[in-house]
Design a protein that fits this description.
Helix content is 58%, strand content 9%. It is built from 19 helices and 8 strands. α9 runs antiparallel to α10 and α13 crosses α15. Pfam families: CMD, NAD_binding_11, NAD_binding_2.
Length: 413
C-alpha cells in the first residue's frame, strides 16, 4: 500500500534502530508516510533503504535528534545493549523521549527496560507487530502497551508504518497480546501437522486437506469461533452442545491414529482438557470442596453418568470414605488426569486378577472415551508380561466383557 506524504503530520522526529526485515520496513514506511527517520544499525549497508533515511553514528545520536525512537532488534540482550551500552540510546536521551520496543521479548525484560528508561525520564512503550513481512508496505498491526497519554502522543508515528494501532492496555499488554497471537499461530501449526499426518494415514493428500479447509472456512474464522462465543451469555449452552461432539470426534481421531501407529499428543491434551477449553464446570475442580455431592459428581466423571446413584448407600464408614475421600480428595487431585489414574488402577487391579473389577474400570474408560478397544486389548498383552498369564486371563475376560457391553449399548442406540 503506497501512501502519499502528508503535510498535516505533527512535528514528531522519528528514529529507527535495527534495520532488519521489520526495522528496515518500518523506516521505509515512515519515509513513505512523510516522516524521515534517523536510523542506526551496526551494519552500515542495512541503511540502504527506499527514501534514503539518514544513517546516524550511534543509538545515542538517534535519541538526541528524535522524539520517538523505534527499537527493532533480535533479542533482550541486544535491546539492553541498544539502550544502555556504549553510546547507547539512553546516553543521548532527553526528557520526554518515547522509546517504542518492537522486539518480541519477555514481560520481565519489558519491565527491566522500562525501569532503566524511567531513570532518564524516558517512556518505554512495548509494541508487538505482525505480520513482519508487511512492514515495508504500511501493512502491520501494532499492539501497544503503555500509558494512554504516551500511546496517543506516539500514535501519529505508529500510524506512519502500521495499518492499525491497537492500544492493548498498560505496559506489557502489547507484548502479551503478541505472545498470545504467536501461541495461536504455533499451536495451529502443530494442530495442522497432526491433522495432516492423520489424514495421510487414510490416504488423504496434504493438498486435499488444504482444499477442504480453505473451501469450508475461507476467512479462517473457525479458530476464533469459540472465543467469540465465550464472550456472550450463551457460552455455557454452546459449550454443552459442543462437548459430546468434541468427545466423539477426538475419540474417533485417536482410534484412527492408534490403528496407524501415530502419536497425537495435541489430541490427547485436547481430549483431557475439553471441559476447560469449553469453559464448562469441571467435576474434578468442584470435587476439591470435599462435599458428598461433589464426590458423587467425581464418581460419575470417573465411571460414567449415573454410576454414583447405583452405589449402595447404607452409610457405613467404608462407603462414606470411598465416596468422600477416594473420589472427593484423591481422584479429584489435578496433578494426574482421570485417564492417568485409570491406567494406574488398571495395572494394580490386574495384579489382583479380578475380572469384575477390571470390567468396572474398562466401563469407565469407554464411557469417557479415554481408551479404544484396540488400546485396551494392547494393554492386556502388556500387563501379561508383568502380572503373569494367569492373572492376564482374568484381565482379558474383564476387558472383553466390558467391550461387549459397550458394543451392545451402541447398537441399541
Amino acid at each position: 500500500m503506497n501512501r502519499a506524504p502528508r503535510n498535516d503530520l505533527p512535528a514528531l522526529r522519528t528514529g529507527v534502530i535495527g534495520l532488519g526485515m521489520i526495522g528496515g520496513g518500518v523506516a521505509t514506511s515512515l519515509s513513505r508516510s512523510g516522516y524521515l527517520p534517523l536510523v542506526y544499525d551496526i551494519r552500515p549497508e542495512a541503511a540502504d533503504l527506499p527514501g534514503t533515511p539518514e544513517l546516524a553514528a550511534s543509538p545515542a545520536v538517534v535519541a538526541t535528534a528524535s522524539d520517538i525512537v523505534f527499537v527493532s532488534v533480535v533479542n533482550a540482550d541486544q535491546a539492553l545493549d541498544v539502550l544502555n551500552g556504549k553510546d547507547g540510546l539512553l546516553s543521548g536521551s532527553h526528557s520526554g523521549l518515547i522509546v517504542v520496543l518492537l522486539s518480541t521479548v519477555s514481560l520481565e525484560t519489558v519491565t527491566r527496560l522500562s525501569e532503566l528508561c524511567t531513570e532518564y525520564d524516558v517512556t518505554l512503550l512495548d509494541c508487538g507487530v505482525t505480520p513482519g513481512d508487511k512492514a515495508a508496505e504500511n501493512g502491520m498491526v501494532a499492539m501497544v502497551g503503555g500509558d494512554e497519554e504516551s500511546v496517543e502522543h506516539a500514535r501519529p508515528a505508529l500510524e506512519g508504518f502500521a495499518k492499525a494501532v491497537v492500544h492493548c492496555g498498560p505496559l506489557g499488554a502489547g507484548m502479551a497480546t503478541k505472545l498470545a497471537r504467536n501461541v495461536i499461530t504455533y499451536g495451529s501449526w502443530r494442530t495442522v501437522s497432526e491433522a495432516a499426518s492423520l489424514a495421510a494415514s487414510a490416504g488423504v493428500s496434504p493438498q486435499t486437506l488444504i482444499d477442504v479447509i480453505e473451501t469450508a472456512d475461507p476467512d479462517g474464522t473457525t479458530a476464533l469461533m469459540l472465543l467469540r462465543q465465550q464472550q456472550t451469555s450463551a457460552a455455557a449452552a454452546v459449550g454443552e452442545q459442543i462437548r459430546p461432539l468434541m468427545a466423539k470426534d477426538l475419540a474417533a481421531a485417536k482410534e484412527l491414529a492408534a490403528s496407524s501407529g501415530l502419536q497425537m499428543p495435541l489430541v490427547d491434551v485436547a481430549q483431557d482438557k475439553a471441559t476447560d477449553t469449553l469453559g464448562l464446570d469441571d467435576p474434578k475442580a468442584s470435587a476439591e470442596n470435599g462435599s458428598q455431592d461433589d464426590a458423587h459428581q467425581m464418581m460419575d466423571a470417573v465411571y460414567g453418568s449415573g454410576f454414583s446413584q447405583a452405589m449402595p448407600n447404607t452409610g457405613t464408614p467404608f462407603e462414606k470414605e470411598t465416596a468422600e475421600h477416594l473420589f472427593g480428595d484423591v481422584w479429584s487431585r489435578p496433578e494426574l488426569s482421570i485417564r492417568d489414574r485409570r491406567l494406574l488402577v488398571l495395572g494394580a487391579t490386574a495384579a489382583l486378577g479380578d475380572a469384575d473389577l477390571i470390567r468396572i474400570q474398562v466401563r469407565g474408560a469407554l464411557a469417557n472415551q479415554e481408551l479404544s478397544g484396540e488400546q485396551l486389548n494392547e494393554a492386556v498383552l502388556q500387563l501379561a508380561y508383568y502380572v503373569g498369564w494367569g492373572r492376564a486371563s482374568s484381565v482379558h475376560r474383564g476387558v472383553a466383557a466390558a467391550l461387549a457391553e459397550h458394543s451392545n449399548r451402541d447398537q441399541a442406540h
